[in-house]
Amino acid sequence: MIALTLSILSSTMIFVVFKLFARFKINTMQAIVMNYFTACFCGVILQESAINITDIPQFSWFPFALGLGAMFITVFNLMAITTQRSGLSVVSVATKMSVVIPILFGLFYYKESLGAFKIIGIILALVAVYMASIKTKDGLKIKPSNFIFPILVFLGSGIIDTAIKYLEGEFIAENDIPIFSATIYGMAAIIGIVILILQISKGKFQFQIKNVIGGIALGIPNYFSVYFLVKALRSGIFDSSGIFTINNVAIVMISTLLGILLFKEKLLLKNWIGIGLAVLGILLIALEKW
After folding, report:
1. Can you give the pTM of this predicted structure?
2. How far apart, in whole angstroms, are the C-alpha atoms of residue 272 and residue 244?
3. What angle do CA 85, 147, 199 make, to 5 degrees?
4. What is the pLDDT of residues 81-91, one digit of tens each?
5. Cα 264 from Cα 258, distance rounded (Å)
6. Are 215 and 30 in contact (CB under 8 A)?
7. Is the pLDDT of residue 288 over 80?
8. Distance of CA 122 to the CA centre of its chain
9. How far apart are CA 34 and CA 217, in angstroms?
């Protein structure tokens, strides 16, 4: 339970840092690249057993980690495009509703249990995510020409979570979690550097130290969100479908409450209903296990 709680808190901190990016006018792309370097560094220093960098490609999970790194930064850019074209609420819903993909994977691939409490809990959790994320009275508004972007965010986010679950169960040794995470973030950082070089070549790059600081502040909770998620999946307190549901819904719930406390956000009635449904959904999933 401790690992799951720490994963939720780490992911919630990512929300807080992103909010501060807007306040301090941080260049998001520069900060994201620095964030990946920071997260990679965290994985390297937390790796307990000594590993030569030349040995890393020999791990069975190495090609998958490279693919995940590419997915991380690709999905981020898709999220940025979606935010610009359709708004933050659309991104939030697409990202968190993607939990359906790893849930279905756990149920069908690993034959996880599916009792009445769990079914109702998952349904309530998905409704809660939608209602807590929509901060406008009119709901989501997406132009038909922009519809492909939230779909890609949905699929990409779901594939990332599903891949982490699959690799955790099939390839990653207990002591290799830090270096596995570091490899993912290292690959994302390399791709990010390429993007920044292209920006420099086009004269669109302007370095500011605050972007580095913002990236470091983002990278630390970003690393631990994945690290503790893998730990939670191995804890046995819930099966993977329960872990992913509780993790995503709790992040939305706590992030929404922090938005009120720290950023003076105003919530609609449906947002409060969403928070209530989130709590109820988590309780029902917990009752299924206990």
Report:
1. 0.88
2. 22
3. 45
4. 887 787 777 88
5. 9
6. yes
7. no
8. 18
9. 9
